Amino acid sequence: MDDRHQTVTIVMIEDDAGHARLIEKNIRRAAVCNEIVGFNNGAEALEYLQPNGTEPHPAAHRPLLILLDLNLPDMSGLDILARLKGNEHTRRFPIIVLTTTDDSREIEKCYDLGANAYITKPLDYDNFSTAIRQLGLFLAVIQIPEMA
Fold first, then answer.
1. Under 8 Å between Cβ of 10 and 139
2. Statement: residue 3 has pLDDT above 70
3. Which of 105, 122, 141, 145 is deepest in the core (most CB within 10 A)?
4. Where are the beta strands (DSSP E) in the chain?
């Protein structure tokens, strides 16, 4: 198979199991059938994305899109974002921040660190479902850069 036509794998870093299920459900509802690899903490996600601290995991040589929660139990999503965007091997991974924080300074910090999009998770179920459904529609049409 031509590497340029591989499907994008979605890496979801979300510690709230309910949010993770809702995100996946609404991505599927938007007819996005891509593989979703889930992690509930930052350390496991980084081990998958950068097992030796710098080089990407062999599985990460295919196109990836990362959905990143900022409030994780073991580390800040900002630290993960900075580490991935600051590394020549992983800086092109598109990262969409999904978090309940709508603090303008934190949003700005995410974009400064290289986030590709920032979505505030509404605290009410219907609004959250709508936001995630829209994300699913976005994922259905986004073009992910191929990895070198």
1. yes
2. no
3. 122
4. 9-13, 36-39, 64-68, 95-99, 117-120
Report CA Rg, the chain. Answer: 14
φ, ψ of residue 15 to 5 degrees: the values are -85, -15
What local confidence, expressed as pLDDT, does residue 11 receive? 94
The correct answer on CATH 3.40.50.2300 for the domain covering 3-141 is: yes
What are the residues facing 13 on neighbouring strands?
39, 68
Statement: residue 126 has pLDDT above 50: yes
- Take residue 131 and report the two structure tokens written for it: 């936001």
pLDDT, tens digit (0-9, with 9 covering 90-100), for 44-71: 999 888 877 666 555 555 678 899 999 9
Give the helix/strand (H/E) hosting 23: helix 17-29
Structure tokens at 88: 């020549």
Domain range list for the chain:
3-141
State yes or no: pLDDT of 141 exceeds 70.
Answer: no
* Nearest residue to 120 (alpha-carbon basis) of 94, 99, 95: 99
**Three-state SS across 108-148?**
HHHHHHCCCEEEECCCCHHHHHHHHHHHHHHHHHCCCCCCC
